[in-house]
Amino acid sequence: MPTPYTTRTTTDELISGYAALINDKVILTTGVRSGSLGGFFVQSIAKAKPAWLILAARNADKLAKMAAEITTAQPEIQVRTLQVDLGSLKSVQEAAAQVNNFWDDIPVIDVLVNNAGIMAVDYQLSPEGFESHLAMNHLGPFLFTNLIIKKIVAIKEPIIVVVSSDSHQLNPFRFYDYNFDVGTLSLYLSDDSGLDTTR
Question: What PANTHER family would the database entry show (predicted)?
Fold first, then answer.
């Protein structure tokens, strides 16, 4: 059992304590690029010698740069990149098909880290017509996880990590207006406005 950690615990101490859970594992992480939280995470766990690091992100050039940084620092680590835009359900389906149908040399995924996400970007809709935060932070990761689930549950003790924040506590999810079609105006309408705000 690893030593109890505090706010002063270093990354190297964490990696040392959890090395047995990382060593020789296949770990797929989304939202990976140099200088980001995802990038720092994969560079750190590479020190514990996983079998494979699968780096997933939207930008192919940034993925290639991240992969090169890892293999330069840890040349014995096998690295593979996966281009996927989690804000597009079509892109998610294509990426999952690549993992499932063309990666015979990676039959299982021990750890999936759903790290990719956006916050406070300008209002826009995904290619399928969903508000971008909902598409990128929720629908895309949910679909991706379920599409590759056979490779995840092919091992005895799989791990799925979802990186998030507690911002959801600021306001409940508005199922009646998930795309903000009604917008903030609904907050100022009376209970007899005709909107069903209980859903």
Answer: RETINOL DEHYDROGENASE (PTHR24320), RETINOL DEHYDROGENASE 11 (PTHR24320:SF283)
